[in-house]
Design brief:
The chain has three helices and 13 strands. The protein is mainly beta. The chain has one domain. A twelve-stranded antiparallel beta barrel has the order 2-3-4-5-6-7-8-9-10-11-12-13. Strand 4 and strand 5 form a beta hairpin.
Amino acid sequence: MRLRSEGQEARAAWVGRGVEFVRWARRSGFFLRGGTWGSGCFLILTLVLTAGAAGLEAQVTCMERQGARVTPAYFHDGDGDGGVGIRLAAQHCRLSHDIRPRYARSTYLGGSFKAAVPFTELNIPQNAEAFLEVGVSVSLSERAPIDLDDDPDDPDVEAFRFDYGFGGLSARLQYESNTDLTEHALVGGAALQWVDPARPWLPSLVVTGEAVRPVRSDIREALELDREVHGRIGLRGYWLVPLARSLQGELDTAYFWTTGLESLLREAGWDRGPYLSTGLGWILDRRIGGEEWLLLESISVSHAWGQRPTGPPEERGWMVGISVGTGSR
């Protein structure tokens, strides 16, 4: 029987839990989602964390990761118009870990940019977003006591006394725009997040509270309104469903409410709105031409319906794209 020390056992338990989190984070972008409401498409920003533990209570700093993603795509909107375009994404993140048997935690600082850019004028529910974020995530778990008589390879051995996923709290500063660049806003606020990678049937949840300062607004100019600061509250739920070895489905739902918005904008339906997207993705993760820095990531198709905070009610759109990324995974 192979025995492991307490430090080795703690490290193995944390790494195993970290693998769960990294697999989830690569798919759903818990920290670097690229904005409050997500992209509405299956092609998601990827966050890769690598860490090694030096023992119990060790402070571990993740390697700094950065990368970019280009997605040639075909877009089709609810008006029957279609055209080619690209999705752009870039990210940069730095993290540090505090490893402990109970409520291990990570702090992080990150920045991101994403945009959908149709080459023709289309009405699709997408935002262009750039943001900075700082926050902390906590593993809502406690490692079980170590019994040296247990076989470390026995799948029935419980690694944790309890395990309720991950919780997070972050502050962010964001710049957002719609796809035709007629509505721009500067947004500052906080987000409360929860996810449980071990229970994929439960949604990942994000609750946000934000202050929004319009920078440019064609609809306000048309209605002769000032660009006044208003509040915004959002709720989002996200599921990622493995369908086969390399096939995954996505369901993304959201709703936002505003406070302090002018009555003319409320009458036009800009004060609140739902959002729903579904997607199907074929994960490839193949190096291109043997290059270590270039990766053919996925082929995906998605449908989005609803309203973004920078757009009018009930837009809809389809997208089919191939995602190519840079940076190590």
